[in-house]
Design a protein that fits this description.
Shape of chain B: globular
Strand order of the largest sheet of chain A: 5-6-7-8-4-3-2-11-12-13-15-14
Order of helices and strands of chain B: HHHHHHHHH
CATH topology of one domain in chain B: Rna Polymerase Sigma Factor, Chain: A
Order of helices and strands of chain A: HHHEEEEEEEEHEEEEEEEHE
Number of helices of chain B: 9
Largest sheet of chain A: 12 strands, antiparallel
Oligomer: heterodimer
Structural class of chain B: mainly alpha
Number of helices of chain A: 5
Number of strands of chain B: 0
Largest interface: A-B, 33 and 45 residues
Helix content of chain A: 10-25%
Radius of gyration of chain B: 17 Å
Strand content of chain B: under 5%
Distance between the termini of chain B: 51 Å
CATH architecture of one domain in chain B: Orthogonal Bundle
Radius of gyration of chain A: 21 Å
Distance between the termini of chain A: 65 Å
Largest sheet of chain B: none
Amino acid sequence: MTDEPLIHAAFEAIAATAPPPERVRARIAARARVHRQRRTLLVGAGALGGAAAATAVGVPLLARSGSGVPAGPAAPSVAAGTPFRFGPGWLPDGVSEQYRQVTVMPSDAAFFGSRRSWLPPGVAYPEDHSPAPGITLTIGERFGDADAGEPVTLGQARGRLAVTDMATVSWEHEGTPIRVTAYQLPNQADLAVRVARSLTRSASTLPLNLTVGFPARFGGRLTLAVHPRPGGWLTSVTSETLDRTRSAMVVASTGEAPKHTYAQFGRPGGITLWVPDEQDPSANFTRDEVDQALMDLAFKAPDLSWVGGRVA
Amino acid sequence: MEFEEFLSARLAALLRYATVLACDPHLAEDIVQEVLSRAQTRWARISAADVPEAYVKRMIVNELASWRRRRAARVVPMSLSALDTVGAPLEDPATAVDERDAMIRRLAALPVRQRIVIALRYYEGLSDPEIADLIGCRPATVRSHAARGLATLREYSRSTT
């Protein structure tokens, strides 16, 4: 055969080894479910680097001029940090904490939920809503398929272990939903159960380092998230109505913003502020409101002293 | 077109496309899953494009180049039994299968940009300007990648005969 037909024949043979679409479709659907769950939680993003001194680099929150009424600044109790309530008493070798998120009521710091992730070495926290490899502990959020999986015993509690491309143990403690997931780890079902059984009280916190003048119609609870990025950090705050019909998110980070954002501003010191592209259309977070919120945003570089740790 | 409709209509073709570009069905599966999961979150904008499939294909090319930067190059684990199940009619089956298998291994060993260009030209049948538009470079760069890739393939061929 001459070159061209031979090359074509070779590519045809390679194409014939393509994986079956059914399997890929199932995996995409599984990731979409996780994405929806995480959207429900209004995930933000994360942080690294130094900045232990938490130097103020923003400007004080300013009341918005014009028709919009900003939500008030967070209460001091929120700024001081709300405890996560529970943390793992045991973790697999090698993983370390790389992501913290907490949802609170800004007026009284009432705890709604939290999420923390311990990732394998050298793995960055994914910023594309895909599941975080390693161990993730989620508290206070109910997910669908409560009866999915096999029953497992967790001390005196009864939970469910569901295994797809990740292993998930879910149960309730005094009415609070708790969920442990293990993803992209060897023997992840065993690890998820062992982490779930090890849960203990936690005094760890995530202090508020961002205050945003969200329009009042987004007022409700605040979700703060922090994780390290290569050479820096990323932190976000989301305001969501209590009925979860409207939400708005603002992100601050070192390094580059994603390619597609709804709006972004540069700040001195290599800080970028942005509003993600995936805005809920019904929220109608208008461009003027976004611009005003980003200009008025006040933040400190997040405390990253917990990054790399394994404490409960 | 809704995302689910797009998957029903085009997922198999996208997997073949990615497999050809990656020369690795496992990597292709990971890449297509990654790309489509990301595409799903912004499908409203992508589906508004004239040809959503072209947009997704560009994402696959970019993702492949990105993965290759992050990972060491792989050797393609093509099995001869898999090869025997497919292929165009051959003049001399025994010799031609050997040649084709050797060509697969040569293609897999090419630098990723060169292989992408050759795959798009000889498997997808795209013109150099179309390839340039897809991978985000000038047509002259496409011709350069193609020439170097073909030269490498011929060099292998001479050295093994």
